[in-house]
Design goal:
The complex is a heterodimer of chains A (about 750) and B (about 240). In chain A, the strands form 8 sheets. A 4-stranded antiparallel β-sheet of chain A has the order 4-5-6-7, with no helix packed on it. Chain A has a 4-stranded antiparallel β-sheet with strand order 8-9-10-11, with no helix packed on it. In chain A, strand 12 and strand 13 (about 560-565) form a beta hairpin. Chain A has about 750 residues and is an alpha+beta fold. Chain A is about 30% helix and about 20% strand. Chain A is globular and about 105 Å long. By secondary structure, chain B is an alpha+beta fold. Chain B contains 5 helices and 6 strands, in the order H-H-H-H-E-E-E-E-E-H-E. A 3-stranded antiparallel β-sheet of chain B has the order 2-1-4, with no helix packed on it. Chain B has a 3-stranded antiparallel β-sheet with strand order 3-6-5. The longest helix of chain B is centred in the first third of the chain and has 28 residues, at about 30-55. Chain B is extended, with a radius of gyration of 30 Å. The chains are: A alpha+beta (about 750), B alpha+beta (about 240). At the A-B interface, helix 12, helix 14, helix 19, strand 11 and strand 15 of A face helix 3, helix 4 and strand 3 of B. Chain A: It is found in: Nucleus. Chain A: This is Transcription initiation factor TFIID subunit 5. Chain A: Keywords: Nucleus, Repeat, Transcription, Transcription regulation, WD repeat. Chain A: Pfam families: TFIID_NTD2 (PF04494), WD40 (PF00400). Chain A: GO terms for molecular function: RNA polymerase II general transcription initiation factor activity.
């Protein structure tokens, strides 16, 4: 073992600390504190054991040196450990000084510190971050200073690992856990379900502690004994844990490291909590109480304990449930006011609602999509909350077309289901990884595992690109049809292939004005392609890891991307760096979507949570838990109030954004859901899945509910088991997983997938 | 289903590993890919460990060497994303800045040209045969394709935007011509380095690739701003008289 040689200044410092420590010991009544868990010597051990050369044993030593309260025997061992350390470093003078001052006999040098006193409880709820950059500092505030001095130059993961202190004797973990299990089994039925929530996080944290402190065999035994008791929806996590038996295995796994440092949130009613607390504060159960205080955040509410079904509906994520305060911020989920556009007179008049701000009714039809009354919708953000690009003439023409199409839209309902047109990508050999359609359904683009992006024209109109500069010079610029003349007829084709990425393309998005196409890939870049020239314009580099999804904002100009680095970024097409970074997820972000008013971004992640972020300031305003697998599909309802999400567990969950609650669950799919889409007027929700089916659900009925105050206050939900009634139809494809759904402006459903025989 | 074929032991071990990790459906080639990766990874680690052991003057490779080798490799090839506190910090800083206002009527909203991929990624070289002494004119006697040299070619046209094609010459038929296309080092700027003092005008010359085959080359130029803006007329006609 190579130990860095410390300067004598360090050594003297350590000795002084040890001397101070010695003084403290006498003053403190040790009996009551004997049960305090011990820390540093094990850290010492771990420091002295096979450690990477870059680790700093000093940081392991110093916490042990500066403990506030200790039993005499344990403290003695700490001193011995320090002595031994100094001896190893040939700091003989310091050794002498320490031995003299601490009054240690000569022959005790050979003993290594066993279970020395621990710290760890200074601030059980406190955030474990120190200035030195070490993520996990379980040491008290007073001892963080020396550890900082020593570890200053090593703000890496090893400091995190080495500064960790252990709660309780590792050999007794099984005993603690079994004791808790027995207690919870004897508790009243109504409390049992709630208290059983504690099992999983406790199990994982205790197991990880054993692994961190190199008690590999004990960890394995612990795992074997208790892993079978956990809920079935945690099986995937447990499998990952099973393969993690050494501390080195944890190093590269950011998700697990984040899990360690974040507190698992549990919602327990006050009565159940009192029960638990009373039991655990008894003398012999103190260890578990400390562990619980350290790793769990218990959100107490007043009221009836929740039933197992209710708990199961909300749990499943890697960080527990969401704290109630996390979902209390105001969210402006309304739609932006549509700008007024003068329309030519039209005979087919639906009820024309007036634009806000225009007192007199004009004959031309106004936009009747989205904008409600003359007054400002209190739930809608103001037009200037975030800067949005102004409407160009072409955009206005688009809107007019949109309105015209809207008049011809079919009203869907349970007795009027949409026709479904399925686009199968043949010969893709399972390489089709992303699909998108333009809003007017004229273009379809596919991203492939061979790193190409292909664009097809859905209509008979071929794809044309702009002529070369040479040809452009020759055309008559003053002619009326100059916009057609600049297009090159000679190279018109049904499809165009875009080359540029160096990895599979996982996300595709058309811009609303059909000028640009975005693609995000495993190579960590997002590329902006021009659909006029079919060339690549910009490569946005920021994620250095695969980018799993990207989407343009409904108003254009902004786009959001999310990837393996657990961060979602908001970009604008004219900035080469992101404008906002949405950080908070524990695992990869697999799906990113804009809200229809472009003020919010929702991200679904592999940590089984969905977060809603505010574009204006980057804050996370909602956390939705309940899925039992990574989320792959998200869809906002066109009115902006509701969110639907689909994951690998085959369930579609429905959320009320305003209240931050789950309002429905649609069971039926048997495999991962990859696509979700609401029809244009929110009547039908279509879901497409890996089980080769498209299912249609009755959205009006699913969201037709009143949220009462109690539910809003406590977050208790009562889900009805009405998936069967809400299912309007289920359509099988011929061995083609459905990865994209799109409702045309007239409410025809288009679906796409790669044929996979 | 029972497998009739007996696989080599390593193969069986890999199948068992996949099963333990919960992967039940996979193509048969996956096992081979995993085995290849494992073999490569293990040999790299052991070779590194041997180097460390010999550096420490040990005769045998022991566990510490292997541990060190693994660690160094981890930092090199298997990097993991940044830790959460760092990300939160960066995010906080970034999110404090207000969203920039959007300039109206600004055409395609793209980042500055340096960050775009819209510049041409090649340059044409001219093989100078004769130089017209006339004022403000640089002639291009011949353009040869195939070699890479350092002499850039034709004069440019003054125009504000760098990356877009600005002016197009009349189509010129150039038969039996060989053209040099020079590819500058990978930089997004379209400025080129002047190589000889006698060539004050430097430019990039775009060759329309679709027309090369037909030996009908259109020379289109894009402006290169180089401090002193060059406003020269494009005079190709008199250079190709002899064709």
């Amino acid at each position: 073992i190579r130990l860095p040689v410390f300067s004598s200044a360090h050594a003297h410092f350590i000795c002084k600390m040890a001397a101070v420590q010695g003084g403290l010991v006498d003053a403190v009544e040790e009996k009551t504190i004997k049960s305090e868990p011990v820390a540093d010597a094990t850290a010492n051990n771990s420091a002295n054991d096979a450690r990477a050369p870059s680790s700093s044993p000093g940081s392991g030593v110093s916490p042990g040196v500066n403990k506030p309260a200790a039993g005499a025997a344990e403290d003695q061992q700490t001193l011995l450990a320090v002595l031994q350390f100094l001896r190893k470093n040939n700091l003989s003078e310091s050794v002498e000084i320490l031995r003299r001052e601490a009054g240690l006999p000569e022959d005790s040098l050979d003993q290594k510190g066993g279970d020395s006193t621990g710290t760890g409880l200074g601030g059980p709820e406190a955030d474990g971050r120190t200035d030195a950059g070490s993520l996990l500092s379980r040491v008290t505030v007073s001892s963080s200073a020396p550890s900082k001095a020593v570890a200053e130059d090593q703000p890496d993961v090893n400091v995190v690992l080495s500064a960790y202190s252990q709660q309780g004797d590792p050999a007794l973990y099984e005993v603690y856990y079994s004791g808790l299990k027995k207690f919870i089994e004897t508790v009243l039925d109504c409390h049992r379900a709630e208290l059983s929530q504690v099992f999983y996080p406790l199990f994982v944290h205790m197991y990880l502690e054993l692994v961190y402190n190199n008690h590999e065999n004990k960890a394995k035994a612990f795992f074997e004994k208790f892993s079978g008791d956990q809920e079935c929806y945690y099986q995937d996590d447990l499998r990952v844990l099973c393969s993690l038996t050494k501390k080195e295995h944890m190093r590269g796994n950011e998700t697990l490291l984040d899990f360690r440092t974040s507190k698992f949130v549990l919602r327990i009613s006050r009565d159940s909590y009192q029960l638990l607390k009373r039991h655990l504060q008894e003398r012999q159960n103190n260890q578990i109480w400390n562990i619980i205080q350290e790793h769990l955040y218990i959100d107490i509410f007043d009221g009836m304990p929740r039933s197992k079904g209710q708990i199961d509906a909300m749990s499943g994520s890697l960080a527990g449930e969401a704290k109630r305060e996390a979902n209390k911020a105001k969210v402006y989920y309304g739609l932006l006011k549509e700008p007024e556009i003068e329309l030519p007179l039209d005979d087919e008049d639906e009820e024309a609602e007036n634009e806000e701000g225009k007192p007199k009714k004009k004959k031309p039809k106004k936009d009747n999509m989205g904008s409600k009354s003359k007054k400002q919708d209190p739930n809608a953000p103001s037009q200037t909350r975030i800067p949005l690009p102004e409407l160009k003439d072409s955009d206005k023409l688009d809107k007019i077309m949109n309105m015209k199409e809207a008049t011809k839209r079919i009203r869907l309902g349970p007795d009027n289901l949409p026709s479904i047109c399925f686009y199968s990508f043949l010969n893709a050999y399972q390489g089709l990884t992303a699909v998108d359609l333009t809003d007017d359904s004229s273009l379809i683009a596919g991203g492939f595992a061979d790193s190409t992006v292909r664009v097809w024209s859905v209509t008979p109109k071929k794809l044309r690109k702009v002529k070369s500069a040479a040809d452009l010079n020759m055309i008559d610029k003053e002619s009326d049809d100059v916009l057609e003349r600049i297009m090159d007829e000679k190279t018109a084709s049904e499809s165009k292939i875009l080359y540029g990425h160096s990895g599979p393309v996982y996300g595709i998005s058309f811009s609303p004005d059909r000028n640009y196409l975005l693609s995000s890939s495993e190579d960590g870049t997002i590329r902006l392609w021009s659909l006029q020239t079919f060339t690549c314009l910009v490569g946005y580099k920021g994620h250095n890891y695969p980018v799993w999804d990207t989407q343009f904002s409904p108003h254009g100009y902004y786009f959001v991307s999310g990837g393996h680095d657990r961060v979602a970024r908001l970009w604008a097409t004219d900035h080469y760096q992101p404008l906002r970074m949405f950080s908070g997820h524990l695992a990869d972000i697999t799906c990113t979507r804009f809200h229809p008013n472009s003020n919010y971004v929702v991200t679904g992640s592999s940590d089984r949570t969905i977060r809603l972020w505010d574009v204006l300031n980057g804050n996370c305003v909602r956390i939705f838990t309940g899925h039992k697998g990574p989320i792959h599909a998200l869809a906002f309802s066109p009115n902006g109030k509701f969110l639907a999400s689909g994951a690998t567990d085959g369930r579609v969950l429905l959320w009320d954004i305003g209240h931050g609650l789950m309002v429905g669950e649609l069971k039926g799919h048997t495999d991962t859901i990859y696509s979700l889409r609401f029809s244009r007027d929110s009547e039908i929700l279509a879901s497409g899945s890996m089980d080769n089916t498209v299912r249609l659900w009755d959205a009006t009925k699913a969201f037709d509910l009143e949220t009462d105050d109690f539910t809003a206050a406590t977050g208790h939900i009562h889900l009805q088991d009405n998936s069967q009634e809400l299912l309007l139809g289920s359509y099988m494809t011929k061995s083609t997983p459905v990865i994209h759904l799109h409702f045309t402006r007239r409410n025809l459903l288009l679906a796409a997938g790669g044929y996979n025989p | 289903k029972r497998r009739k074929v007996k696989f080599p032991k390593d193969h069986e071990v890999m199948i068992q590993i996949l099963k333990d990790m919960g992967i039940t459906e996979y193509e048969p080639r996956v096992v081979n890919q995993m085995l290849e990766f494992t073999y490569r990874y293990v040999t790299t680690i052991i070779e590194d460990a041997k180097i460390y052991a010999s550096h420490a003057k040990k005769s045998n490779v022991d566990a510490d060497d292997v541990k060190l080798a693994i660690q160094c490799r981890m930092d090199q090839s298997f990097t993991s994303p940044p830790p959460r506190d760092f990300l939160l910090d960066v995010a906080r800083q970034k999110n404090q800045m207000p969203l920039p206002l959007i300039k109206p009527y600004s055409g395609p909203r793209l980042p500055p040209d340096r960050y775009c991929l819209t510049a041409p990624n090649y340059r044409l070289k001219s093989v100078q045969k004769k130089v017209t002494p006339s004022t403000n004119r640089i002639s291009v006697p011949r353009l040869s394709v195939g070699g890479v040299s350092s002499r850039p070619a034709t004069p440019t046209l003054g125009a504000p935007s760098v990356q877009t094609v600005t002016k197009v010459t009349a189509p010129v038929s150039l038969t039996n011509q060989r053209f040099t296309v020079q590819i500058p080092p990978a930089s997004q700027t379209s400025t080129t380095k002047p190589t000889t003092a006698s060539t004050p005008a430097v430019s990039n010359v775009l060759i329309n690739p679709s027309l090369i085959g037909s030996k009908n080359i259109l020379i289109t130029t894009s402006m290169v701003s180089q401090g002193d803006s060059l406003k020269r007329k494009h005079e190709d006609d008199d250079d190709y008289d002899n064709l």
